[in-house]
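How it folds:
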Amino acid sequence: MCAIVGIYGNDNAARLASIALFAMQHRGQEATGISSSCDGKIYTKKDRGLVSEVFTDEALQYLKGNMAIGHNRYSTAGGDSILDAQPVYAKYKLGEISIVHNGNLINKDEVRQDLIDKGAIFQTGMDTENLIHLIAKNTKDRLRDRIKEALNRTIGAYCFIVQSRSKQFVIRDRYGIRPLSLGKLKSGGYIVASETCAFDLVGAEFIRDVIPGEMLIFDEDKAEPESIQLFEPEFRPCAFEYVYFARPDSVIDGKNVYVTRENMGKALALNDKDKNIKVDMVIPVPDSGVPAALGYAAQSGIPFEYGIIRNHYVGRTFIEPTQEMRDLKVRMKLSPMKSLIEGKSLLVIDDSIVRGTTSKRIVKILKEAGAKEVHFRVASPEIKFPCYYGIDTPHKEELISNNMSKDEVCKYIEADSLEYLSVEDLVNAIGNDRNYALESFNGDYFVKA
């Protein structure tokens, strides 16, 4: 769920990269980094913390050049060491290289052990470093050929941007699991970013999505990026991008995220139509539950109210690395509107239930504030299976719906009723014109090592 960005052919490359990363801060808050290239040298600045904290004017002045790549970290592999922040930089036979990666490589351990057996020395715990070693150990004369052969040993969900001293190589896996889009900067040059919300902030015009299995090559000798189709596309975009990850103002692979979430809420309302549940208002769990709650209210005719106020100076709870931190942030982040909800029956909509602890605490704070009833609705299906393609749910025991039935979850979170969106309704809400990566909901692990 990391964010990546590449800027090519603009004298303010690093600054624009930092602005794009700021727009995509929701995709990772552990660390951030940028590498720029100037006069045959790569400059890198990375550190723990938020984009606004790391990229001061002094840091951006250091990052010289008209090309830059950047990364916001949300860990699915590796630890919390600063060494595990990206970009990953190295010197090798052809010069200097820097890489950013969004996704998760499912054969990382096997490839890493093979490289270690052949003498490689790893500096980080990240799967991204595998690609550096595969490129460095290759004997081809051109970087593009080394990248191609390295990707033949790379299995999983990935969007890579590889930066040399004068070029950028952008690669999306054949399934297109994680999003990646190409834009044209109004101030000159190109941008590639995980989400289109970054384009709005830097002043870029959307051109198209990077095709699954495609490699784009940005070269100062060519006016437009060169496109090479490395793998035959087997398009399976991640449904969870629409449920939770992406910002609502982004367009992911042609689908407006806000509209898809609104559709999810409408589907929930249609499913509740004959259940004869009497509620006074529809309340979202802010912020990612808002579009679905608006959709539910519009479909059902039940008033929409902001019954929970969010403190926006607290980060996203789902992507916190420990349960203790998630619990603390829920308490800090969400405050009920007691005067509004006291004595009322509420229909509360959230985007998902992963571990259940956040939902339980939300129900508790609403009832402590005087809510008569809390009916919980979830704008996604039950999450029963861990995802190995970039979501931080590595163990089945962490997933409440893997261990409990719907009625048991309802009892655990102490709600008066609980309903989920079906997989079919989720697909219809996003658009049933394509297949989606739904492994968290149905256990279909279509990418195999």
